[in-house]
TrEMBL record:
Domain RRM residue range list: 19-98, 113-187, 235-312, 381-453
SMART domains: RRM
InterPro entries hit by this protein: Nucleotide-bd_a/b_plait_sf, RBD_domain_sf, RBM45_RRM1, RBM45_RRM2, RBM45_RRM3, RBM45_RRM4, RRM_dom, SLIRP/GR-RBP-like
Listed PROSITE patterns: RRM (PS50102)
Source organism: Xyrichtys novacula
Keywords, ordered alphabetically: RNA-binding
Protein name, UniProt field: RNA-binding protein 45 isoform X2
GO molecular function annotations of the record: RNA binding
Keyword Calcium belongs to the record: no
PANTHER family, per database record: HETEROGENEOUS NUCLEAR RIBONUCLEOPROTEIN 87F-RELATED (PTHR48027)
Keyword Nucleus: no
Length: 465
DNA sequence: CGACGGGACGC
DNA sequence: CGACGGGACGC
C-alpha cells in the first residue's frame, strides 16, 4: 500500500493471513476517511482505494491492511454496516481474500471462527475448552478420537463465535498447541436421506445451541450500541446482511415488531440478497425498537444483521420536531434497556424457538421443526387445509406442518385457497390437525381437516394419493 | 541413540 | 454489486 516500499507490500499483503480487509463503501469515501474510520482497531499498514484506471474515480471498494489478523477481525466485526461518512451508504467489511486466491467469494465467518489445535492426548474436551476460553466465548470443542477405541488422537477443534476470538487464540496461545485456522469442513452434503421440498437451513432446527445466538441484548456491550444522542432517528431502517436472505425472511423478522408498513430487499445482480433491505415503520417508536432489538441479531446464526436509521424524507429540521423525535426515541430506548416491561411488544431475548422467530407468527405454540419424510414415502394420511383470506407460502407451510413429524410434502392447489399435506404417519397428521385447526399463522386462518380420498382413479381400495 | 515434529473431524 | 495499483530494493 502506498506508503510502503512496493515489494514489501506485495509480500505483506497476506502476512499474517487474514490481516487485510476488503471494504465496500460509497465511491465518495476517501482513503483518509477510511484510515480515520479504522484507526482505532490497530496498526494500519496501508489503505488503498481501488480506482478506475482511466477516470481515476473510486470504484467504491478499498483494502485496509492491519498488522494483525485480530485487529482486522475486530474492525470488521465492529464496522460492518456502519455509515463512515454522513450521507454515504453503510459499509460492508470482509476479510480480504488472499492475493493469490482467484476466488472472489466473500470470506465467511464460518471460515474464520474455528481453530485446529494439537493437544496432549490426555486432554478432555473440557480441558480444551478451559484452555481456550480465555480468547473468547466458545461455541463448542471437539477432540478427534479413534472411532473404535475412543482414544484421543491429540487433535482438537475449537469453534468461537467471532473471527476476532479465533484470531486472538491463534496469535496468543501457547505455541505448543500449534493453533491454526481449521479448514472448513468439506460440505459433505450427506446424501440427505430426507430430500423433499425447499432447502432448509440447519439453523432452523429447534435445537438449543441456536438459542445462544438469539439476541445480542443477552450479552450487553458485545455489539455496537446506538448513539441515542445523535438524534438521527427515522421511521426507516436500512438492513445490511452478508448472507443470502429472502425478502420474505426479512419481512417476517421485522414484522415481529408491530407497525411495519414497508419492506424491500434491495437485490443484487444475482437477484439474491447480499445487499441491503429497506424497512419502514408507521411510527418512530417501532423503528427505534426494531433497530435496538435486531441490530446485531444473528440470522441465520453467524450472519449478523446490521440495522441503521436512514433518512425517510421527513422534516426533522425543526427544533420542535427533532425534540419530539428524540423524546419518543429515548422512551423507547429506556423501555428496551429496562427489559421485562416490554415483553408485550415482543417476546424477551431467551424465548425458545429461533425458528419460530424467523418467519412464523402464530397464536399456537409450535413444536420444534422435524425432518421431512423421504419424498418417496408412502402417504398414510392427507390433510386438507383451507386458508383465509389467502394461502400461505409453501415454505411457511412446510415449516409449520413438518413439526409433527413424517411430513412428506405440501401441495397447494394453484389458484385456490386450499392445500394438501401428505404424511407418512397417521398419528403425525392427526397431531397436526389437532394442534393447527382453526389457528392463525402469519395472519392467515387455517381450517385443517382430513382430506377426502382423491376422486379420480378410484378402483379397488381407496388409494391414498 | 533416543524424542522431534506432526495435522483433519463433525455442532 | 463489489476483488486487487504504482513503482523500484539491494544484490
Amino acid at each position: 500500500m502506498e506508503e510502503y516500499p512496493s515489494k514489501q507490500v506485495a509480500e505483506n499483503l497476506d502476512d499474517p493471513p487474514n490481516s487485510r480487509l476488503f471494504v465496500v463503501t460509497s465511491r465518495s469515501v476517501t482513503e483518509d476517511e477510511l484510515r480515520e474510520s479504522f484507526l482505532a482497531f490497530g496498526d494500519i499498514q496501508g489503505v488503498w482505494v481501488v480506482k478506475d484506471k482511466q477516470t481515476k474515480e473510486s470504484k467504491g471498494i478499498a483494502y485496509v491492511k492491519f498488522a494483525k489478523s485480530s485487529q482486522a477481525c475486530l474492525a470488521m466485526e465492529d464496522m460492518h454496516g456502519k455509515v463512515l461518512v454522513e450521507g454515504t451508504k453503510p459499509v460492508k467489511v470482509f476479510i480480504a481474500q488472499s492475493r493469490s486466491s482467484t476466488r472472489h467469494r466473500d470470506v465467511e465467518d464460518e471460515e474464520l471462527t474455528r481453530i485446529f489445535v494439537m493437544i496432549p492426548k490426555t486432554f478432555s474436551e473440557e480441558d480444551l475448552k478451559e484452555t481456550f476460553k480465555e480468547y473468547g466465548d466458545i461455541e463448542y470443542c471437539v477432540i478427534i478420537k479413534n472411532k473404535t477405541t475412543g482414544e484421543s488422537k491429540g487433535l482438537g477443534y475449537v469453534r468461537y463465535y467471532k473471527p476476532s476470538q479465533a484470531a486472538l487464540a491463534i496469535e496468543n496461545c501457547d505455541k505448543t498447541y500449534r493453533a491454526i485456522l481449521a479448514e472448513p469442513r468439506t460440505k459433505n452434503t450427506a446424501p440427505d436421506e430426507y430430500s423433499g421440498g425447499a432447502p432448509r437451513g440447519d439453523y432452523m432446527g429447534g435445537g438449543d445451541p441456536v438459542n445462544s445466538y438469539a439476541f445480542p441484548m443477552a450479552e450487553p456491550g458485545n455489539y455496537q450500541v446506538m448513539d441515542y444522542r445523535s438524534g438521527d432517528f427515522t421511521r426507516c431502517l436500512m438492513i445490511s446482511t452478508r448472507a443470502a436472505l429472502s425478502q420474505e425472511q426479512i419481512f417476517a423478522l421485522f414484522d415481529l415488531i408491530p407497525g411495519m408498513e414497508y419492506c424491500e430487499l434491495q437485490r443484487d445482480a444475482y437477484g439474491m440478497s447480499k445487499g441491503h433491505a429497506l424497512i419502514r415503520y408507521s411510527n418512530l417508536g417501532s423503528a427505534v425498537y426494531a433497530k435496538e432489538k435486531l441490530n446485531g441479531f444473528e440470522y441465520p446464526p453467524g450472519n449478523r444483521l446490521v440495522v441503521n436509521f436512514v433518512d425517510d424524507g421527513e422534516d426533522r429540521s425543526s427544533p420542535v420536531g427533532r425534540m419530539a423525535m428524540q423524546l419518543v426515541a429515548a422512551q423507547m430506548m429506556s423501555a428496551v434497556w429496562n427489559g421485562p416491561s416490554t415483553s408485550q411488544v415482543m417476546k424477551p431475548p431467551g424465548f425458545s424457538a429461533v425458528s419460530t422467530m424467523s418467519r412464523i407468527q402464530t397464536d399456537v405454540n409450535l413444536p420444534p421443526m422435524k425432518k421431512l419424510a423421504p419424498p418417496d414415502s408412502k402417504a398414510k394420511e392427507r390433510l386438507f387445509v383451507v386458508f383465509s383470506p389467502s394461502p400461505l407460502p409453501m415454505e411457511v407451510l412446510e415449516d409449520v406442518f413438518c413439526r409433527f413429524g413424517s411430513l412428506i410434502e405440501v401441495h397447494l392447489v394453484p389458484g385456490r385457497k386450499v392445500g394438501y399435506m401428505k404424511y407418512a404417519d397417521k398419528q403425525c397428521a392427526d397431531d397436526a390437525m389437532a394442534v393447527l385447526h382453526g389457528r392463525v399463522v402469519n395472519g392467515v386462518k387455517m381450517k385443517v381437516m382430513l382430506a377426502d380420498p382423491p376422486r379420480e382413479e378410484s378402483h379397488k381400495r381407496p388409494r391414498i394419493y
